[in-house]
Design a protein that fits this description.
Structural class: alpha/beta
Number of domains: 1
Strand order of the largest sheet: 1-9-8-2-5-3-4
Number of strands: 9
Mean pLDDT: 91
Strand content: 15-25%
Number of helices: 11
Radius of gyration: 19 Å
Helix content: 40-55%
Shape: globular
């Protein structure tokens, strides 16, 4: 489904607001970032009432055993988290890659290094969870041959700025709408391809797979690519903490060691969703509940059956 293009005037207004916020964030202390980020999250919530209502519905369906007060507490923390992360990410984008790595140390990085050593390409799975943008910047200090699958921003001025940042760090972004061929080429060159498959796709593009206990239309592309080329799947999540962030690698999947039943693309997609779901269930306030993850599945079963 194509999106209506924003007017140039609206894009310029958005860009001007972004530049003003960025100027303040780049001069602010860590304490000020935390304080103003919290306020930014609360302001966003007041402006985006429909997204707030959607997030609360998603939380209610995902955690029916919780009280309304508990779910509201998670959502409060969620908005504040994304307000802080917005400012932290803006500031981190202007730092040298080596400095970003100091502020975002790696945990279990040997899992990624071992996967690269196998020589068949690596599919690095993450999610819109924690500080994924910061994690992507820090990753460039560990490996250089990286491609990220993403959709271009709706604002051409912001996209241009983002392009300059990517050029400085060496990151290459593949438009997810036309990424298949480029992704195959990158993996055949033993590149690390970063994919965040936790967002809804159109039914014709996806398969139904449980996500936090409910069916969700999910892209099977990571599973299909890994099975086709024998690429290793590694998971990574960037977790904010009191001193900054840490990028945690976990759960390597060697597709050449899977059983015949496990080598089914749908089965592997379900396994990918399961790893992401477990992370979200442990720290639900760090995930993007405002996204319509279960769009188009209202008539489907909750357990993927």
């Amino acid at each position: 489904m194509s999106r209506r293009k924003k007017s140039v005037v609206l894009q310029r207004v958005e860009y001007a607001l972004y530049r003003a916020v960025a100027a303040g964030a780049n001069r602010a202390s860590d304490q000020a970032i935390a304080r103003w980020g919290k306020r930014l999250g609360r302001l966003s919530r007041n402006l985006l009432r429909r997204r707030d209502a959607l997030a609360l519905r998603n939380l209610s369906a995902a955690f029916p055993q919780m009280s309304a007060e508990q779910r509201r507490g998670i959502l409060d923390a969620c908005w504040e988290h994304f307000g802080r992360e917005t400012l932290r990410t803006i500031r981190m984008q202007n730092l040298p890659v080596a400095e970003i790595a100091i502020r975002c140390p790696f945990v279990n990085a040997e899992l990624l290094e071992q996967a690269i050593a196998r020589g068949r390409g690596v599919i690095l799975i993450s999610a819109h969870f924690g500080g994924w943008e910061v994690g992507g910047l820090a990753l460039m200090s560990l490996v250089k041959n990286v491609r990220t699958i993403a959709r271009p921003l709706d604002n051409e001025f912001l996209e241009r700025d983002l392009g300059r940042i990517r050029a400085r760090t060496g990151a290459e972004v593949l438009d997810r709408r036309r990424a298949a061929r480029a992704m195959l080429k990158a993996l055949s060159e033993n590149a690390v391809v970063v994919i965040l498959p936790d967002q809804a796709v159109l039914p014709r593009e996806g398969v139904l797979a449980p996500f936090i206990g409910r069916n969700a239309w999910t892209t099977p592309a990571p599973a299909k690519m890994a099975l086709r080329l024998g690429s290793t799947i590694v998971f990574a999540f960037c977790i904010p903490d009191a001193t900054g962030h840490r990028l945690e690698f976990e759960e390597t999947i060697f597709v050449d060691q899977l059983s015949e039943e496990e080598r089914d693309p749908v089965a592997l997609t379900k396994r990918i969703n399961d790893v992401i779901s477990r992370r979200i269930e442990r720290r639900p306030e760090l995930w993007l509940w405002m996204h319509d993850r279960w769009k188009g599945t209202e008539s489907e079963g909750v357990n993927g059956e």
